[in-house]
Structure formats: structure tokens, C-alpha cells
Amino acid sequence: MTNTQPVTTAAPGVPGATVVVDHVSHVYGSGDTAHHAIADLSFSVMPREFVSIVGPSGAGKTTLLRTLAGLLTPTEGAVWVEGKRIAGVPPGMAMVFQDYSRSLLPWLTVERNVAFPLGGSDVPKAERQRIVDEALDAVGLAGRGRRYPWQLSGGMQQRVAIARALASRPRLLLMDEPFASVDAQTREGLEDLVLRIRDHYDMTILFVTHDIDESVYLADRVLVLSRPPATLAEDIAVDLGPSRDQITTREDPEFIHLRGHVARLIHGDDRAR
Ligand SMILES: Nc1ncnc2c1ncn2[C@@H]1O[C@H](COP(=O)(O)OP(=O)(O)OP(=O)(O)O)[C@@H](O)[C@H]1O
């Protein structure tokens, strides 16, 4: 789907931003059962930025991501992607969910799952195969294309789901707790994988996670949402340099400071302020 409304005015926020969230609110239901999930949220994300989104449980993180994906229409405000106000799934966007077992089709091989987003396009067969091979190679699954998802470990299945997102050549990748269902060691490998593919594919990434350490380890910025209705508690720059390492980055005093700061914001400790 490529539903975008005609551009009638320039996007608000920072000029050149990939994503602009402009005074977005979302209310589920109405009347007595209305639930105000997001309240007047505004921020911008620049090209190639990696932005983590964290917040208390039920704060509205998934609601925000679905709004950015064009899957939910905000009750108030608007989302702009690459200068266009969205009214549906924006072009050049892909999403990766936590539950890889439900997002992969078990009756298709890994290769055909990865090729799935190219289904309706007029990409020639040879080019299609090249894109699939490149995506599988990028996630370390070269040579596994003929297997079926259920023949792979959980971490490998999530890598297939990431490869499928890459096959559509997204400029914007939205990830909703993508590593919550894998063990700690696999998770570290996937975190480093995502940093590598961000550079290789030149993408902007918004990454929802419950894991405070992960949010800091991966990101250029951490957006901390408040308790519901969620607004922006703090927009934190992560000054840890462009390359990260699972051991040395996590030992860095700045990393330790930031993870404590984010934790206090989420747990409502006034010492953070
Ligand atoms: N379709 C829906 N209809 C009604 N309420 C909903 C719907 N989807 C979510 N909610 C409510 O909106 C609030 C925010 O939900 P959301 O899933 O966005 O939060 P979250 O921060 O991602 O949650 P979690 O930390 O548990 O992953 C929750 O109270 C949830 O129950």
C-alpha cells in the first residue's frame, strides 16, 4: 500500500527529518470505556538515526509504533514520513514484530518467506533472487534458504523475519520488541546484527523495547514515554560513539549512567530529575 495524502503544507518539526510525530494523541474506544493511550506526543527522527522507545508497561509504545506504521490513525495530530503526511502504510517502511512464529509462513521455505514482500512487484526473477540472497547473507543465513522456518532455532527465525523486512529495501524500519522471545546470548547477537544492517542498508530505525540496557546499547537517542496517557518524559542523546561492543560499551561509565537515568525515569524516581 502506498497511501499518502497530497502534500499541502511543509512537514512540521526539524527540516529533513525522516519521521515527524506532530502532537499525536490516540484514544481507544469512546465514552465510559475510552482509554487515552497517547497524549500530545511530538518528536522528529533524522535519516539514519537509531531511536529506542521505552516506557512503563502499557505506556502506549506499540500504539505509537502502529501509528507510525500507518496501521492506526491517530485521534489527533499527524505523522509525517519523508515529508509526507501519512494516511496508511508509508512507502519505504517495513516492520518486525516480537512474534516471529506468527509472522513467518510455515509452509513456505525461508527463501520464499524472504521474497514475500516482492510478491506483487515487477522485479525480474534474477534480481529477486539477488535481493533475497543479499538479505539472507546480511542476517548470516546464506545457504539456509531452502529450509523451512520450523527447521530453524528461534533466533534464526527472527533473522529470517528481519531478512524479509530487508527484502523490501526499507528506508525506515520499525521494530516492536523484536528480541523479547529469544535467550540472552542470541539476543546479543541479534542486537549487533541490527546495528550492522542499519549501516549496510542505510536505514532509519525505531525500536521499541522493554529492556533498558538494550535501548541504550543500540541507540543514538532514547525516547522515554511517561505513564499512560503517554507523553514524552525525556528525549535522551546517547553519546557512546558509532560502534558498540557487547563488553566494552556496557562497561563504559556513560552507558552505566544512562541506563540508571532511563531506569529512574521509567520507575518514577525523582532523583533522575
Ligand atoms: N485495540 C485496543 N483497544 C483498546 N485498548 C487498547 C487496544 N490496544 C491497546 N490498548 C490499550 O492501550 C494501552 C497501551 O497499549 P500498548 O500496547 O500500546 O502499550 P505498550 O507500552 O506497548 O505495552 P507493553 O509495555 O505491555 O508492551 C494499554 O492500556 C492497552 O490495554
Major sheet description: 6 strands, mixed
Seen as an oligomer or otherwise, the chain set is: single chain
Strand arrangement within the widest β-sheet reads 6-7-8-3-9-10
What is the count of helical runs?
Answer: 9
| Overall mean pLDDT | 90
Dominant shape? globular
**Overall strand count:** 10
Kindly name the structural category.
Answer: alpha/beta
Low-confidence stretches: 1-8, 269-273
Bound molecules: adenosine-5'-triphosphate
Strand content: 15-25%
Q: Give the radius of gyration.
A: 19 Å
Between the first and last Cα atoms, what is the distance in angstroms?
A: 43 Å
The portion of residues assigned to helices is: 25-40%
The H-and-E topology, N to C, reads as EEEHEEEHHHHEHEHEEHH
Pfam family, one: ABC_tran
GO molecular function: ATP binding; ATP hydrolysis activity
InterPro entries: AAA+_ATPase, ABC_transporter-like_ATP-bd, ABC_transporter-like_CS, ABC_transporter_ATP-bind, P-loop_NTPase
Keywords: ATP-binding, Nucleotide-binding, Transport
